[in-house]
Every structure is written in structure tokens, then in C-alpha cells.
Design a protein that fits this description.
Layout lengths: L1 E4 L2 E2 L9 E6 L2 E2 L10 E6 L2 E2 L5 E2 L2 E6 L2 E2 L7 E2 L2 E10 L9 E10 L10 E11 L8 E11 L8 E6 L2 E3 L8 E6 L2 E3 L8 E6 L2 E3 L8 E10 L10 E15 L4 E12 L10 E5 L5 E3 L2
Parallel strand pairs: 1-3, 2-4, 3-5, 4-6, 5-8, 6-9, 7-10, 8-11, 9-11, 11-12, 12-13, 13-14, 14-15, 14-16, 15-17, 16-18, 17-19, 18-20, 19-21, 20-21, 21-22, 22-23, 23-24, 23-25
Length: 288
Amino acid sequence: MTIYKNNYFTGERALFGECNAEIIGATFGKGESPLKESRQINLQAPIFKWKYPLWYSQKITVTNAIFETMARSGIWYTQDITVKNSGIQAPKLFRRCQNVQLEHVHFADAEETLWSCRDVRLTDVQVCGDYFGKDSTNVYLDRVSLVGNYCFDGAKNVEVHHSTFIAKDAFWNCEEVTIYDSTLSGEYLAWNTKHLTLVNCTIESNQGLCYIDHLTLKNCQLLQTDLAFEYCSDIEATVTTTITSVKNPLSGKIHAAGITTLIMDATKIDPSKTTITTDTPITERKDA
């Protein structure tokens, strides 16, 4: 094994194709693709200052790292990478990667980050930025805090625990998403998604949970959520709060503590296909 300690690397492809190395306390200055095509690399406390540091790499471990702003598009087409205890200022990291593990990582600018990746696990991760997780598959999240719109658009097989999302248009166009014990706040939650399950979640969303095929809510709170369930099919929902308004669900069962306004337009849907029950009387009913 080659050991590098406290080196300063500059120039394009400084350690191109490096294999079986331990790199401790290195700074990668100006120069593109310093570790492109690298294999079996253990990076401890590196500082990445420039573009494309880890492309087409395999079996990479990174701890206590800093990715500065110009380390953008930093990790693409890489397999088997773990990043721990690191701060990432650069946007557009992780694209078309496989077997990605992130633990105790802070993304200060996660714009267009984690796109089209497979087999991803995030634990205790903070994210700030739009379009996080687009088109990724087999994603597991635990204790993730995300602030940014359009997260996980087009994602498949996503499992979430103990997380918070402040995001407009979150989880659009997804398939097979299950979210436990989490809070989601933002307009238009999860439109055009198939097989969405929320368990013990708190949701606040203007026109949230619409155009969904096979929607399940178990013991969830819907706070200030209006026009919910529009054109949703195969609903199985148990809601412990009063829903501001429900509009034109296609089919299924909805039970809520209450509904302030229920809109069932028989010119648009067949109201008989949805069973709706409440603990308290529905305040207002509208046919259109």
C-alpha cells in the first residue's frame, strides 16, 4: 500500500489511476480529475478544491473531508464509496454512482446532487439544495434533514425514517416510496407517484397527495392540507387530524378525525368508489 501524508497536489490528473493507497491530510488544489479511475483508496481529512476529483473510481472511503465550492460535479460514475463526517459545499456531487454510503454529511449546496444513483444509504445527513436525489433507485434514509425543492423526482424504491423535508414538489413521479415517523412540509407533495406509504408522519401541504396510484396513510397528521387526494386511486388512509379539504378522490377508503370541506364532483369521478368516514361531522359538502 502506498501512503501519502500532508501532500499538496495540483495539475490535471495528479493521481490518475492510483490503486491501493492511503491518503492522509492531502489538499487537492487547482487541477481537474486528481483521482480519476482510482481503486481501493482510503482518504482521511482531504480537502478538494477543484473539479471532478473522483470519477470512475471504485472502493473509496472518505472521512473528515472538505469539498469546496469548485469541487463541483465531484463524484460521478463511481462504485462502492463511503463518505463520513464531511462537509460538502460543492454542488452536483454523486451522479450515476452505485453503492453509496453517506454518514454525518452536510451538503451546503446540494443542487442537482445524487442523480441517477443506485443502492444509496444516508444516515444523519443534512441537505440544502434543489433537485436532490433525482431518478435514484434503492435509497434508504435515516435522520435526514432536507431543505430544498423537487427532491427525489423520479426516484424508485425509497425508504425513509425519522427525517424532515421542507420541500415543494417532493417525491414527484416516484415508485415504491415508504416514509416512517417523518415530517413533510411543502406544496404539491408526491404528485404522479405510484405506491406511496406514509406511517406516523406529519404532513403540511397545499394541494398535497394528488394524482397518486395506491396511496396508504397510517396514523398520519394532515395539517393545513387542502384539496387533498385529488384523482388518487386505491387510497387506504387513516388521518388523526381534521383535513382542511378533500377533493375528488377516485377510489379507496379515507378515515379522518374530521374534514372541513369535502368536494365530490360526480361529473369528474364516481363518488361511490370512495368510502369516507370521520369522527366528527363534515362541515361543508360540495358537489362541484
